[in-house]
Amino acid sequence: MTHFISTIAIFSDVGRGLREGFFMFWETLWALVLGFTLSGVVQAFIPKEKLQAKLGNHGPKAILRASGYGMASSSCSYAASAMSKSLFAKGADFTSAMVFMIASTNLVIELGIVMLILLGWQFMAAEFVGGPIMIILLALAGGFVFTTALVQSARQRLTKPASEQHDHGAMSGVSVERQEELERTSMGAKFRSKAAWADASSYAVADVTMLRKELVIGYTVAGLLAALVSNRFWNTLFIHGHGVWTVFENALVGPLIAVVSWVCSIGNVPLAAALWSGGISFGGVISFIFADLIAMPLILIYRKFYGTKLTVRVVGLFYVVMVIAGLLTQGIFNVFGGVPSRRAIGVAGAHFEWNYTSYLNFVFIAVAIAVWWLARNRAKYGGGIGYAIDPVCSMQVRTDDAPATASHEGAIIYFCSDRCKERFVANPQRFVGAGATPEGMDPLNSIAEGIGEKPSPRTIPEIDPICGMTVDPATAAAHRSVGDRDYWFCSTGCAATFDDHGGQNGATDLEHGDPLYPKDSNSPRNDFGPRMR
To answer: 521 or 366, which is more confident?
Structure first.
């Protein structure tokens, strides 16, 4: 019976922990959606040259811009990390990108409101005093700590071709060619383009997909710690009643508690309130709140983004500037008598209530659904690759400014001209049904059609499976048949390479989407695939 009761108690505690974790997630949901959506927009809409001009260094003007951009963005640590990664990948200076992240999590109104409610106006004011201190320290030290070699390596890690990536590039579905086209397109044209918004949505969904494990682990562990670990335990890690040594020790330990507590974003404010009630120094609480960016889930995310070596330096420098900012903030408030004396602060339990957070969450849930739907249907709007094949003449057409389009069975079909569209609309099954063959646009076909004769069919362009070049089967240098599939090659050398791979084995690899062109080649993937005979 005792064993049964203990089991029930364990399940009850775990249930409380999961409930705590859910409401931590609920408190930051709208900020998460906003942050990841903005991250997608930056990746799809903002040209590298513009970011390099605005944030391409860590001089005073760039730091001020990065701080301003951060204050105007999401307050969620997870979303801020994704946003800063996008800025860096698009050409922003690494130190400026880190400044953006600090500003977006420590100089925002939402965090100030929560601190005002749970801790009081002094803590809210301390946020806007200590935040600039951290930014100044980071700007001064970043150029020395973040070496050129490590930063270049991290940028290459983020900007390598999608075919080589295991994470973000492959999941977004936006090709390198399409991204280059977006870079060349004017901002106004992109804002009016459904394809561009679909690409932005694809980037946002890819960011969430890449970080989904860290998000789930982070909120779950934070909830379990909040439910299973008492505030008294956290308080035992701080010393009390030793004057200036207490202030130093509390400021040093505060960020370490943030690391092991797994609580970040606005979710760390309730724990900060509990620590303050337990007797922690003002500077210790401030340094703990600032340290949401080095909570364990964020460290794992940094490692995934930038690699282990640069992550160690980021976390180390963040820790130092957070400790110093906490100490200096307490010193400033001591001078002006601003350190609060009241410590009896009640922390509300996790529960649902109708407030501004709930209303914003429901609005942004609708936004999240729209973003997901756009990403899922990006091909319908011409997102992703940015090109389509006219089914009438087989010409490649830019989806962003195709001369004509038509809807067929829920999909958008793109055409090189109104004439091709008219032929398609007159008999769609002739061009998309079983056995359909494009007619081509050569002069002989046009003359034949003009005198009432049936035009000669034009072969569909194929992709050389070795080098990725487009090949016209009618003039291909070599041809191979494996089973019921045909392959065409641009040269006898590519055909020989195909044969060297065993022919049948190579064909099997192609059926699974793995072209055989050399790894150091910059050729595109075989998107057309081998033709069934």
So the answer is: 366
